[in-house]
Design goal:
The complex is a heterodimer of chains A (115) and B (114).
Chain A lengths: L2 E3 L4 E5 L4 E3 L2 E3 L5 E7 L5 E7 L5 E3 L5 E5 L4 E6 L8 E8 L9 E2 L3 E6 L1
Chain B lengths: L4 E3 L2 E4 L5 E6 L6 E7 L6 E7 L2 E4 L8 E4 L6 E5 L8 E8 L8 E2 L3 E5 L1
The chains are: A mainly beta (115), B mainly beta (114).
Chain lengths: 115, 114
C-alpha cells in the first residue's frame, strides 16, 4: 500500500530564510508526487507535481521540489520565505497523473514564519 | 462558477442527526472526489465518481456514509446517524479527466457533531 511520511509536524523559520520540508513515500511502482498548500479555512492548492523526467520540479510561489528515487524522498524547498507562506503543507502520492485517481496524503507540516 | 463550491461551509449536527453536504464541481469536470480531513491530519480518500458512476467507494468508513452524483455534476455526501468521530472537514475535488493532471479542491465543509 502506498504511504507518505512527513516527519516534521511543525517548522518555524524567519522571514527571508530558506526552507526545506521533508517528504518520504512508499510506493510499489513509479510514483506521481504532489505538494499542496492549505491556508486556514481554505481548500488545498497545488504547488507542484512530479510525474517523470527532470527530477527537480518548479512550482508556483517560488517553490521547488526534488525527487530522489534512491531515498524515496520528494522534499519541498524555497530559497527565501515570505510571511504569506505561513500555512499547512501536504505531500501526496498517487498512482497516475490523469487526475482520476485517489491521492494518499501525509499528515502535513505546519509552517510558521517569524519576522 | 470559477472553482469548486461546497455548501454549507460549516455544519453543526447533534449526534444521531442525518446531514447532507453538497459539492458543485467546476463545469465540465468529469471526475469528482470526496476526502475527509480530521483535525491535525491530512485528507483521506472517501470516494470517487467519473460522471455519475461511483467507481471507488473503498474509503467510506461505514455504511452510514453515502455519496451520489446522479446527473454527473453536483454531488452530495450524506452521513446518517452522525457520530462524534464524524467531526472533520469534508473536502471535494474535481478534475477534467483526459489529460489534466490537477484536481481542484473546494474550501470544504467543517462538520462538528455535538
Amino acid at each position: 500500500a502506498q504511504s507518505v511520511t512527513q516527519p516534521d509536524i511543525h517548522i518555524t523559520v524567519s522571514e527571508g530564510a530558506s526552507l526545506e520540508l521533508r517528504c518520504n513515500y512508499s510506493y510499489g511502482a513509479t510514483p506521481y508526487l504532489f505538494w499542496y498548500v492549505q491556508s486556514p479555512g481554505q481548500g488545498l492548492q497545488l504547488l507542484l507535481k512530479y510525474f517523470s523526467g527532470d527530477t527537480l520540479v518548479q512550482g508556483i510561489k517560488g517553490f521547488e521540489a526534488e525527487f530522489k528515487r534512491s531515498q524515496s524522498s520528494f522534499n519541498l524547498r524555497k530559497p527565501s520565505v515570505h510571511w504569506s507562506d505561513a500555512a499547512e503543507y501536504f505531500c501526496a502520492v498517487g498512482p497516475s497523473n490523469f487526475g482520476n485517481e485517489k491521492l494518499t496524503f501525509g499528515t502535513g507540516t505546519r509552517l510558521t514564519i517569524i519576522p | 462558477g470559477a472553482g469548486v463550491s461546497q455548501s454549507p461551509r460549516y455544519k453543526v449536527a447533534k449526534r444521531g442527526q442525518d446531514v447532507a453536504l453538497r459539492c458543485d464541481p467546476i463545469s465540465g469536470h468529469v471526475s469528482l472526489f470526496w476526502y475527509q480531513q480530521a483535525l491535525g491530519q491530512g485528507p483521506e480518500f472517501l470516494t470517487y465518481f467519473q460522471n455519475e458512476a461511483q467507481l471507488d467507494k473503498s474509503g467510506l468508513p461505514s455504511d452510514r456514509f453515502f455519496a451520489e452524483r446522479p446527473e454527473g455534476s453536483v454531488s452530495t455526501l450524506k452521513i446518517q446517524r452522525t457520530q462524534q468521530e464524524d467531526s472533520a472537514v469534508y473536502l471535494c475535488a474535481s478534475s477534467f479527466t483526459g489529460g489534466s493532471t490537477e484536481a481542484f479542491f473546494g474550501q470544504g465543509t467543517r462538520l462538528t457533531v455535538v
